[in-house]
Design goal:
The complex is a heterodimer of chains A (about 300) and B (about 210). Chain A has about 300 residues and is mainly α. Chain A is built from twelve helices and no strands. Chain A has one domain (about 1-300). The model of chain A has no long low-confidence stretch (mean pLDDT about 90). Chain B has one domain (about 40-200): Rossmann fold (3-Layer(aba) Sandwich). In chain B, α5 (about 130) links the parallel β6 and β7 (about 155). Chain B starts with 8 loop residues before the first strand and ends in an 11-residue tail after the last helix. Classes of the chains: A mainly alpha (about 300), B alpha/beta (about 210). The structure holds iron/sulfur cluster.
Chain lengths: ~300, ~210
């Protein structure tokens, strides 16, 4: 067999593992949130049942072509983010399609899905969708600034745009991790991470308890199922990205799961401790302290 | 939406170009609901299991009973552990809880919301008001028997049923779905004309299409 076929097979395997890991994370984290609220909470396997249920719906309606394409766009954002970075450092196969400039590409993938959703939700015609999309885009734009500044600082630090090289430079113990060697960029990235994960206090955009549930208001049945798949893959992919950038990557699946789980806990604990921001509040918050830290991180690398 | 908003009209764009608007066509999708037959055998059984273990309830409260659904989300009753979750949009929900008396005005909204839900969908009716009108049986403004207007899967009796009764009722619904008897949406499609005639008897200012999605 050609190497490309083997690569494809391993990418599918990666997607499968990460998908299930993402769903498991969802269930476990919701369980933790419930326990903090003194409830039993959902069963840990509930996310799987929800997806099966949505795919098993017998009818769906359509609002037009963009409405169909939007969930695919969104899923592409998640899978693209996952496949263009090294998942397990040092193995040929689980490095998937990472290449020398992948860091820049990943910045684009962050935004890709949201834009697709904007088009699809607009075609859905529901006023709440439009409202949700504009709020979501505003918030993404705000934290993206900090995120990008942090990533630029790291790129300058290691003089490379390749994630594999960034991970390689961090091997050999905790003292080499970026979060230790470049704490300013680390702090900026970890603050941007909070909103990137879409958990409280920055989850007003898609929170079901809000009157508009946000962009997915009109999506249902299988289309919602696709979005749910992405809700599992995208956060897991982001966790892997942050692990690669700041915490030395992983050389096997066990390390990956432990590290990403602990990184996720940062946003979970912040989430259960702090109530939701309104969108204007979160934007203002991001454009002040995190932004200053981000700028300092870049300046610090320069001088 | 009031009647004049649903009439055909012509509006002018900023550069004076006329645009014809037909709200009934633009905002709604007409047509009749179709019967969707269940698949056979083990696939449908599996799907039914998933449906029954993941009941998404539409957050729509009517009558006094809406107040009894809230405790289900609290630590004391915590319905989430049985797979019930609340969704804010009819598109994504599969269970419609009619939580008490239905005034004529609300009935219209209930019908619209019900028709926007996707097959298969289930209706749980709460309290004696939905069974025979309860203490409002002779009111000028409420309906008496809910299943003249929507296919009801489970009734929960009481005035007001306590949250425990609700949980028991949902349990009953789960069993019904697992046995493959949760076919309310198909029943609605089958007897569509009868349901519509009943609904129109009550709702005098009918200004929406017969079936909106
Ligand atoms: S059954 Fe009783 S509690 Fe329920 S809506 Fe009717 S009057 Fe209210």
């Amino acid at each position: 067999m050609d190497t490309i076929w083997i690569k494809l097979l391993f990418s599918l395997l990666t997607i499968f593992i990460v998908l299930n890991y993402g769903l498991l994370l969802q269930g476990v984290v919701r369980k933790i949130g419930a326990r903090v609220g003194r409830r039993y909470g959902i069963r840990w396997y509930q996310p799987w049942i929800d997806i099966i249920k949505n795919y098993a719906k017998r009818t769906k309606i359509t609002h037009g072509i963009m409405y169909y394409i939007a969930p695919a766009f969104r899923l592409t954002g998640g899978i693209g983010l996952l496949l263009f970075m090294p998942v397990i450092y040092g193995t040929d196969m689980f490095s998937n399609f990472s290449f020398t400039g992948d860091l820049l590409l990943l910045l684009y993938f962050q935004f890709f899905g949201v834009l697709g959703m904007a088009l699809g939700a607009a075609e859905g015609g529901h006023p709440y969708s439009a409202m949700g999309v504009s709020r979501g885009l505003a918030q993404v734009t705000a934290y993206e600034l900090t995120l990008t500044l942090g990533i630029i600082a790291i790129a300058v630090q290691y003089q490379t745009l390749s994630i594999t090289e960034i991970v390689a430079a961090q091997q050999g113990g905790i003292a080499n991790w970026t979060i230790i060697t470049n704490p300013l960029a680390g702090i900026a990235l970890m603050l941007a991470f909070l909103a990137a994960m879409g958990r409280s206090p920055f989850d007003v955009v898609i929170a079901p308890q809000e009157i508009p549930i946000g962009p997915p208001t009109e999506f249902h049945s299988g289309l919602l199922g696709v979005l749910q798949l992405n809700r599992a893959i995208f956060p897991a992919a982001k966790l892997i990205l942050f692990m690669n950038l700041l915490f030395g990557g992983a050389t096997d699946w066990g390390t990956l799961i432990i590290k990403t789980f602990l990184i996720y806990m940062w946003s979970v604990f912040v989430g259960v401790a702090f109530p939701r921001f309104r969108v204007d509040q979160s934007i203002r918050w991001y454009l002040f302290i995190p932004l200053i830290i981000g700028v300092l991180a870049v300046l610090f690398m320069k001088f | 939406m009031s009647k004049e908003h649903t009439e055909k009209r012509i509006v002018y764009s900023p550069d004076g170009e006329p645009i014809e608007i037909d709200p009934i066509k633009d905002y709604f999708e007409g047509g009749r609901p179709e019967i969707r037959n269940p698949r056979n055998g083990i696939i449908e059984k599996f799907a039914n299991w998933a449906r029954s273990e993941s009941l998404w309830i539409l957050g729509f409260g009517t009558g006094c009973g809406a107040i009894e659904m809230r405790p289900l989300m609290t630590p004391r009753f915590d319905a989430y552990r049985f797979g019930y979750q609340w969704r804010p949009t009819p598109r994504q929900s599969s269970v419609f809880v009619i939580s008490g008396y239905l005034s004529v005005k609300t009935l219209k909204r209930v019908i619209r919301s019900y028709e926007q839900m996707q097959n298969p969908k289930f209706v749980v009716a709460l309290g004696s008001c939905t069974i025979n009108g309860g203490m409002y049986y002779d009111s000028y403004n409420t309906i008496n028997r809910l299943d003249h207007y929507l296919p009801v899967d489970v009734y929960i009796t009481g005035c007001m049923p306590r949250p425990e009764a609700l949980l028991a009722g949902f349990d009953h619904l789960k069993r019904k779905i697992k046995e493959g008897r949760g076919e309310g949406a198909n029943k609605y499609a089958e007897n569509f004309d009868w349901y519509k005639a009943n609904q129109k008897k009550i709702i005098k200012d009918w200004d929406i299409p017969d079936y909106n999605w």
